[in-house]
Specification:
With 330 residues, this protein is mainly alpha-helical. The chain has twelve helices and three strands. It has helices at 2-13, 17-42, 48-58, 61-66, 80-108, 110-115, 124-151, 175-194, 213-216, 220-239, 245-265, 281-329, and strands at 201-204, 208-211, 271-273. The longest helix is centred in the last third of the chain and has 49 residues, at 281-329. The model is unreliable at 157-163 (pLDDT under 50).
């Protein structure tokens, strides 16, 4: 079958050299079996047109060859839904709020409009920030995908896991939890970094001054460093989901430092009344009280979460150390 031989040679051109012979032999066997079955059904040898019809159904040689090659992708189908979810969360918690701030400034703040005559151009930093976040998230997921593909961790699953008792190994780290921490951390870093070029305070209604306390009191770089370090620990946990004593110690130190920063920020008011303001003093005082209360409640909640995680980390560190001692003794 001259036509079949020419078809197989075309397929072989698109195959890896090492696997070419085996794959061509497999395709040849399938094609010959199909041709023989068709000839037996007709009770005669196939005509050239009938041979062409069989090869046409199989498709272009390049596409046939692609079916026998490993399907490579930056982010595979197993992680793709989570990847899309993370991008959506970042868009909602970071890109959209900053865009709404830009809209508010462009509509209601004449002084800001005067200092930014090119309104569309002023969106450049937000676009760059969003692009950087997209690249960072994509890089993280690509690294996780590469590790999964190398170790086949996504494929090594059995239905027995559905009914098996949950593991109580304190060294294990939840990949889902690490991924959520990375998303929240990246959003916080992006939002906090965006405040670097903002004024440390601004006036509302000629009666209230809002002060970005962390910016004005020198905590900006400390908090940014803590956020970056925490995101680094979460990324390490995602790639290697098993606690080590060193990583746990770093996590405890970061959380304890965060609690200290919260305690230092707690007495500082976020909003201050301006003397002699033209607005209703009583209404402004009530507004200032509520804003400062919300600020302090948020700090207390953050401090409680960090303190609880510190305690949990200390307990986990003790169990990890004991497990290591048992392994060493055995």
């Amino acid at each position: 079958m001259e036509l079949l031989d020419r078809y197989l040679r075309e397929v072989a051109l698109w195959l890896p050299r090492k696997q070419s012979a085996d794959i061509v032999a497999e395709i040849s066997a399938d094609l010959k079996a199909e041709a023989e079955e068709r000839a037996q059904a007709l009770g005669r040898p196939l005509s050239r047109g009938e041979e062409e019809a069989i090869l046409t159904r199989w498709g272009r040689p390049m596409l046939v060859a692609s079916r026998y090659q490993p399907q490579e992708s930056l982010i595979g189908p197993a992680l793709l839904p989570t990847y899309y979810f993370v991008l959506k969360v970042l868009s909602l918690v970071h890109v959209l709020p900053w865009f709404l701030v830009w809209v508010w400034l462009a509509i209601f703040d004449p002084s800001w409009r005067a200092s930014h005559p090119d309104l569309l151009g002023s969106l450049g930093p937000l676009g760059f920030n969003a692009l950087a976040l997209f690249a960072l998230v994509t890089g993280i997921f690509a690294a996780v995908e590469r590790r999964h593909r190398h170790h086949a961790t996504l494929e090594t699953w059995t239905a027995r896991e559905l009914t098996s008792a949950p593991s109580h190994d304190w060294r294990e780290v939840s990949r889902v939890g690490s991924l959520i921490e990375i998303v929240i951390g990246l959003a916080a870093i992006a939002w906090w970094s965006g405040l670097a070029g903002s004024p440390s305070s601004f006036v509302i209604d000629d009666a209230l001054r809002v002060t970005w306390t962390p910016l004005q009191s020198g905590f900006f770089w400390t908090l940014l460093a803590l956020m970056v370090a925490a995101a680094g620990v979460s990324t390490a946990n995602l790639l290697r989901p098993r606690w080590t004593a060193g990583r746990l110690g770093l996590q405890i130190a970061l959380d304890a430092t965060g609690v200290l920063v919260v305690c230092l920020l707690l007495p500082i008011a976020l909003v201050h009344l301006l003397p002699g303001g033209g607005a209703d003093a009583a209404r402004m005082a009530t507004l200032a009280w509520w804003i400062n209360l919300s600020w302090r409640v948020s700090l207390v909640v953050a401090g409680f979460i960090l303190a609880s995680r510190s305690v949990l980390g200390i307990v986990r560190l003790g169990r990890v150390n004991r497990a290591a001692q048992i392994v060493a003794a055995g």
